[in-house]
Design goal:
Largest sheet of chain A: 8 strands, mixed
Oligomer: homodimer
Number of domains of chain A: 1
Structural class of chain A: alpha/beta
Strand content of chain A: 15-25%
CATH class of chain A: Alpha Beta
Order of helices and strands of chain A: EEEEEEEEEEHEHEHHHHHHEHEH
Number of helices of chain A: 10
Strand order of the largest sheet of chain A: 1-4-8-5-11-12-13-14
CATH topology of chain A: Rossmann fold
Chain lengths: 390, 390
């Protein structure tokens, strides 16, 4: 769902990096019919690739990103000090091995990192789309990812991989285009959100939309951005993507100022407060508010089995690929229970599935963070994926 | 922490009610020296009493309220359809039996329900205090509660009882005035907040203080109220006081509109969203933003053992009363683990303590909600309290 906590833990030395990567952009002038019935008459997507496509094009991997993610999953952009959001798991010798696989990572439509989205120009009006940009569903992303896939000459993914909202896209791939992927890797995800999860997303949206600078989403027209709202939205997200224990370990009850003077709390703050404010400030500088709303709505409305009579077993019966499901013990927004529901439905649908429940701190963000067992099982499963590439 | 969810479940028929109650007000013109070093030169407190003080004044009970609570704990105000926030547990034949006990419930200083607080007039300026109102700590509330106690002619409470922030006051009573209470009843509380709890409070405060109508807390001077911020603060609170399962049971993923039309989500909403918006709107009409900030700060800074070398055992060694500690399995803001820490420290300090961990949905709000086992153990313990009243 976010790459926010990659810097939360001391990163192990990573001698093997993809190195410098350069995003590519692709224009599509074939209309894309969306789940909402609306049509994007033309659009651009920005993406990165790592590794080389093999001769029979059997080693292609699609990475699907989460709420605040983007195409820059691994390696470094020129001049950057921090690598892409999943660099620990993508690269030479890493679980998603760029020496074995051709890895494609695309910024989702509706995003704010280069693919067509609310900040892009609507060709019909010549002005930025802003909140007129169509709502997106996971299947829309799947379809646009598939258009890029065709353009790259790929007929079948070795694997589609995603965490959180990315895992929802991976599952949607397995149901929509069952012949076009061999493996589906679903990490810290769910077949649908819980009421609590929807509620947290709603608070985030309300924080943004009640910011006087939001202007019903047409803030670009007013030359402002709803920074206060976006900052609050991120603060809520940040707390909920971490675990209680993780926060306790990281911050405890430490005060920002050196000493605690009872009652003189005008200037002193707990470390956790200043950290949250800082994270919120940073995010509100770089992320688009309409994109945040769009992504959370896609999360809320995702319901894998809705059109299959609310029966996840019936839904998964359409899949033809193998599944690998991963969850993390301290993740309370996409709890292990949600992953077990996926696994149970897959087993009942008689589909091949491997499942790993990883002991981990740091809650939902655990899927982005170094963790030995997670690395090992991920490696092992990707070995199986590689063996299917001729 | 809140009385928000009293209406969450079908309330059982309650034939025995205290009936109509009338709040009382008391002016104090003796200065109150606060933990911050500041002084309230004079102040008013509003309170209610239920039942009769017995001849030797041994049957008095103090109820301490939580974040958004107030003095109106039980019975009905003239014309009200809903009773006080803890009516299920206070009244004739109820655990805190008004036929046996003389029950005192006071609005805390800094509140917004009648006791002196940010909306009151500062006698030195002739204007509302607003954010100039002094910060409050639990010990300040204990001291002002004690002044009322003396005025009522009570030398020793049979019990001091509180949930959440109220439980913190009850524990503070046990350490500050060990000879002046026989029982301390601590429900869904903690010796200090976790980093996650502080973080949620910080988001609430930031929501309020970043509302353009906040004006550094001097919104009364500007004839506005920071409604948007207070609404968001309440929404965050509301989610976190409920449990994930409780929300799931109450709302599931039901849509507000009758039918779901994929992609036409402009007008449809999940039930949980409209419920949260409604709750937030209601709260923002009636609660004072400066009080909300003041109460959350008191929560954050409470640390029972700080002045005892961070040793809860050393802290509790000063107590002379018996303790009854209650926690609820689905409460994740004041988890059972926090209550077990209290119990463990009390046992290590060789203090008499009874502990009940109650299986309950509805998270932190469970302490306000009908629950058979909770009622039974509460009844049983209060029987013991009553036996100590001559």
């Amino acid at each position: 769902m976010s790459e926010q906590s990659v810097d939360n833990v001391a990163t192990e030395s990573q001698p093997q990096s993809i190195g410098i990567v350069t995003p590519q952009s692709q224009h599509f002038d074939q209309p894309l019919v969306l789940a909402s019935g609306r049509v994007l008459s033309e659009y651009d997507v920005v993406y990165e690739t790592y590794g080389e496509l093999n001769a029979d094009k059997s080693n292609a991997i699609l990475i699907c990103h989460a709420l605040s993610g983007h195409h820059h999953a691994a390696g470094f952009h020129q001049g950057d000090k921090k690598p892409g959001w999943w660099d620990h798991y993508i690269g030479p010798g890493k679980p998603i091995d760029s020496q074995r696989f051709f890895i494609v990572s695309m910024n989702n439509l509706g995003g704010c990192h280069g693919s067509t989205g609310p900040t892009s120009i609507n060709p019909e009006t010549g002005k930025a789309w802003q909140s007129d940009f169509p709502h997106m569903r996971c299947r829309d992303w799947v379809n646009s990812q598939r258009n890029l896939m065709k353009l790259l000459g790929i007929d079948q993914w070795a694997a589609v991989i995603g965490g959180s909202l990315g895992g929802m896209q991976a599952m949607r791939w397995a149901l929509e285009y069952p012949d076009e992927l061999r493996h589906c890797i679903v990490i810290a995800s769910a077949t649908k959100l819980t009421a609590q999860n929807i509620a947290f997303n709603e608070v985030a949206r309300q924080a943004i939309s009640s910011d006087p600078d939001f202007h019903d989403g047409f803030y670009i027209d007013h030359n402002v951005i709803p920074k206060r709202g976006l900052r609050l939205a991120r603060m809520v997200g940040h707390i909920t993507y971490l675990s209680e224990d993780g926060m306790g370990q990281k911050f405890g009850r430490e005060l920002k100022a050196g000493s605690f003077m009872l009652g003189s709390d005008d200037d002193v703050e707990f470390q956790v407060e200043s950290y949250l404010r800082y994270q919120g400030d940073m995010f509100s500088e770089v992320f688009d508010a309409n994109t945040y709303i769009l992504m959370t709505k896609a999360l809320d409305y995702f319901d894998l089995a809705r059109e299959y009579g609310d029966d996840a077993i019936a839904a998964f019966s359409h899949a033809k690929c193998s599944f690998f499901v991963v969850s993390f013990t301290s993740d309370w927004r996409f709890s292990t229970q949600r992953s077990r529901e996926i696994v149970d439905a897959l087993v009942a649908a008689n589909k091949p599935v491997s499942y790993a429940e990883i002991e981990a701190d740091f809650g939902h963000d655990a899927f982005l963070i170094p963790n030995k067992r997670y690395e090992n099982v991920f490696h092992a499963y990707m070995q199986r994926v590689a063996e299917g590439c001729q």
